[in-house]
Amino acid sequence: MDYCRILSNIFSTTFSKDDGKDFMSCIEAANKHLDQKLESFNEKVDEARDTEVIALSKTIVWDVESTENVSNLVKMSKDRLSITSKSAFSTLKCNSCVIAGRYMYEVQLKSKGVMQIGFCSSQCKFTQDTGVGDTKYSYGLDGSKKRLWHVYTKNYGPYWRSGDIFGVCLDMSKGIIEYYRNGLSLGTAFEDIERGIGISLFPAVSLAFNDSLTANFGGSPFRYPVHGYKPLQLPPMKLLYQADQLLEYLVNIARLISSKHKESSTVPKSPTDISVDSLYMLISALIVERMIPLLINSYVVEDKIIKIIKSLCVCKSTSDSLIQPGVIGSTLEAFLSLLWTNMEDFEIKIFLKRLLNYLSNTFKETPTDLEYENQRTIIVILTCLCNHTQTRKFFLEHKFFKKNCLPLFLYIKPPDESTLELLLSDDIIWTEGLGGIKEVYLEACEKLKSYTSILYERQKKLILTLLNNVDGDENSPSSRKIFMNRFRSFALDNLSASFNTTTQPAIGLSLLCLLLDVAKQLHDEEKSEKPYLIVNHRYFYDNTFNYGHIDRVGGVMSHLCRVFKKELTNALGNEHQHVEIPPEPNNLLRDIYSTMFLVSTGNGTSTYSVVRNALSDQTNHQLTMPISPGNIDNHKSICEIIDCTIMFYQSVAYKYVVMIADLRDNISHLSNILMETKNCRDEVTRNLEEYKNSIEGVSSTHDEILKELSEKFCERKNIFAKRSIELARKQAWYRSVALGTQRRSLLCWLTGCVFKTIEEASSSNVLFSFVPEHYITVLPLLLDTILDFSFHDSGLQHGLVENQDLLDMSAEFLSSHLADSRVIIASCKDALIQALGTLTCHQSGIKALENCSEESQLLLVRALLRKYENRAWGQSNWIMLRFWLGENSAFAYRDPRQPCIFQDNTQTTITLPLIRGRQKNSSHTGLLHLIAPPCPSKHFQQLIRQVLIEDEQYSTGFLNSLLTQLNWAFSEFIHILQDIENLLQRDSQALLPDPRQLKICSMCFDLTISLMRALEMIVNIAPEIFKDSTRPNSDNLLGRVSQLVIQVLSRVTVPPSCFQFVIDLCLPDLISVTHFAILTAALGTILGLMSDELIFETLAKLPKVSRHILTDSSFQIACLEFALGEIKSTVHVPNADQPRGNFDPKLNRFVDPLTNEIRKIPSHRLLNERTMKNDPPILKFNLSDYMTHVTNDEIERVKKLIEVLQMRQSLLSETTLVSEDALCTICYARQNDVIFEPCLHQSCHSCIIQHLMSVKQCFYCKAFITMVKKMDGTILYTNESSPSSRADSLNIESTSTSHRDTQDLDDIDTSN
């Protein structure tokens, strides 16, 4: 063997024959050569630096010794360069200062909040309120506000972004400080700074809570070095020289190993010889031994090693194949294998962590070009490293899923604003308000997408590399198995985070969509006939997947295991391992954390950090499961990817989708403002021109006024146009990359997988209860996304022809499972309702529901018509109304917006946006706070009618519960209004009511309106229930409905009205409380009941509905006239209090005929004409003022109703007036029609039936009542427990409830 030639190939120098006579001489020669080479470097000392920089230690880092209690204020990395603030405003300075010369340092931002970076002197004292730049001898820049701070403040530079690298340059000779952002100068920031004897400046930063950055004082190469400025810490030149030499030698060995040399297969000629491979390993051991101190040095890793690895990331061509970097046979694989072989585990791990940290920090930098050249290079390097099996498994097991390392590599960050502006200039931007050419704008969006496509494909290749499933053996798991284990722990950690998720939503959505893309590709490669992946429902209960402490749709896991133990044994077999329930977490630390908010201590921040970290470690420990060796089943791994992405979408990714939709809504709002501005300008200009042309001799003043108005309109337009351009440029990124067509299609596929999985699980009967909670709670989120949020234009009703099969599938499942008894947990019940509500907000969703099977449709209708007790009736009631609102009945409710007399009526219901009420965490606040254009369904109206007509008992139970809840909601609402009125009348200087009380008041009003509209719907689509005398409960139901509706009208119209009093206060928290909503619902119900009685003809007998209305003691024609804005009938006021609003004849002289407004004193003071001029206006109510919501035909119907009732009221008073002796002395509202036995006293049936519910004695004589008969002899009640009496009791239950509900309203204090 030619040892000399081998040494020459490795060390690139000539060796003597003595050095290569045997392998021992060869090793000695190599050892000697290495020692001589490494000692030959003579380091030059920078003498000038010793007099310009005062360093307290050899390594320059953030100073923790001189800063008081800094450990309580910040969280710091081990190298003391990365810091995160854990107090209101933390300030740190460096452990070295500058007294002369030109020096700089760099900081990379990890957040974009309030931070002040710059320099300060040793004389500066900082507090939680003051930071760098807030004192005389400190200078700071806050990019979140674009401000410089040095006692004074001024504008400077652009807004900064997370990932930006700022260079902070100090020139003590000229007395200036200058900032650089990503290598570009922002100009001189401070001039003539304080200098002189005793003044030295320290690098310093101040950070608000949770803001974070990483500093570089010279311990690593500057990312953007500035010519003429030196780092505070000198580079380790000797180590760099040694690294150059040693890396060159090690790479030479790696190349020799990867090449097919004849010597590699040569058999040793004698026992003293060794093989070439063995010789390579011995020499490499000598090299690596000397390299170990260099490999853990950050400067060496970032300046030398990364360049070597980059040079090795090239494909190697052979005669029959192309070898990828990092795989067996490549130079990079040999290089990494030499390191793994010759280094201890902890040494190689430290090296790889530093290497990965550098790649991560570089990738997070803000892109300065549209090609993403830097990011693409980093992904290629990382993929090549992950091609090496040991390195890949180490990254997966120890690094990728800690601190969002891998998700950050899979996130495509938007380019810098200036870079994005080059592609999307102002003249290309399009919105509905700005105008422009939409096609040009969309073409630019597609071009932006094309720039990111290459980076996306490389990220996808990285994921596929990490999902390698052939590298497992009997001793170690495959990479895919490690990936799934760590990703599941990562997803569970985000799902169970009780304080805040650990992953940013934008990063989470990128990770999720990439995994979905890979999962879909793997599913397609299986050549399955099914388009959607179905997760085997056995995985939910056979211990295949770890769900931690996630609840199931049927309840808590421990309870389900006990209840369905037999079913589990039948499904899994006797020998299968029982389902393991993870132990409950130790709540001690969580209790400590909760207590910290109640107890304030001097070092509370430190306790916060300790407890939070301990709690996080505890959670991670519990959620991480041991990994078995070997490969994982391919289909099972794809199922697990889908399973984890479902929970990850719910916990993290969906929040980013909501942010994207919010930006779209903001653009739409700005567009409306711009169009309104244009219309106003055109109208004013046209009116002024017409006025000018109509009058001769007009002075030039009109031209000046016209010019001034034009300038004002232009100024207003420019303000909103500028903001619209900024948002539209941002939306271009959302359209093309963040939530483009590709990602939308992936989310549609995920939605299909979820529905197919739970549909398959539903067929397992009771084992459906084991479905994890997030499979159901994610449904409304996914449907929101594919039906609305993934569209970037403001129009709501999108044509979803390509997704109609998906919508049909979702509609079928939701219809048949809305009232599924197997769904126990409240969050899942609510999610099913929310998902169904999302479908009903869209025309395509209504169509999908109409396409369902008849059985599912019937199940849905019966679920909506269940009794209101013990269920979320408010939301199901809202869904039922979606099938009806918009129909031409009494009031069509074509416009879902809050009515306003100044409302724009140019928008059609198709272009109106979908308005959602959401909490801070982006979750739904309920369907009652969701406003959507109407999408009525004749089909479901007929189904509802069919169920109500055909099932008497079912419809009676539903309507009685509806009326009971309506009585409760309205009574609570009126009680709160009375409390508010009494409070302000007792004390004119009293504060406004508690916002919580107002919120409850508003909620009760919303529930009242929802219930009244449900009642209105039933009355209009199935009037026979109330008017068909052959139905046993029609009279009772009609009586209850009439009483309640009339009571509502009376309470909100007839003075003195606490409703009018609170309306006059104009409280912001009660903006939804209006006359319009409640009056239209009440009038619509009456019009529906009297639909066939609105005729002018002489009748011998009053019609049934008219009689019920006119004989009610609370009814007044004035209540109906109130809706038309003018009261002509006599108002029966219960006391002498001054009436208000439409009823006040004394205020007519204060009504402005143009604005129809009244000026009066605040509502909680007495009416006084002397103070009336200074009081705010109050608008009189009139239906004709709301022409965006009401048509002329609808108003005419109200007028006709009033005329008919007036005519029949006079007929009633002349021909059918009941004598006072014949009236019931209990209620004075109805005629006596029953008699009691044995005492023979009389009353109306409603009063005695309610009375008998609690007391069996006569009203008057207290005798025990044995029987109640009608005047015709029909027995209503008997105390004998016979079957007939039980039946009678059932029939009269609604009647008793009817009078009780009305009595509740009568009990309210009417003096107010």
TrEMBL record:
Keywords: Coiled coil, Metal-binding, Zinc, Zinc-finger. Pfam families: SPRY (PF00622), TPR_RNF123 (PF25576), zf-C3HC4_3 (PF13920). Residues 1224-1262 form the RING-type domain. The keyword Coiled coil applies. The keyword Coiled coil applies. GO terms for molecular function: ubiquitin-protein transferase activity; zinc ion binding. One of its GO terms (biological process) is proteolysis involved in protein catabolic process. Residues 24-51, 674-701 form a coiled coil. One of its GO terms (cellular component) is cytoplasm. Residues 1280-1297 have a biased composition (Polar residues). SUPFAM superfamilies: Concanavalin A-like lectins/glucanases, RING/U-box. Residues 1280-1312 are annotated as: Disordered. Residues 43-222 form the B30.2/SPRY domain. This is Uncharacterized protein. It comes from Chironomus riparius.
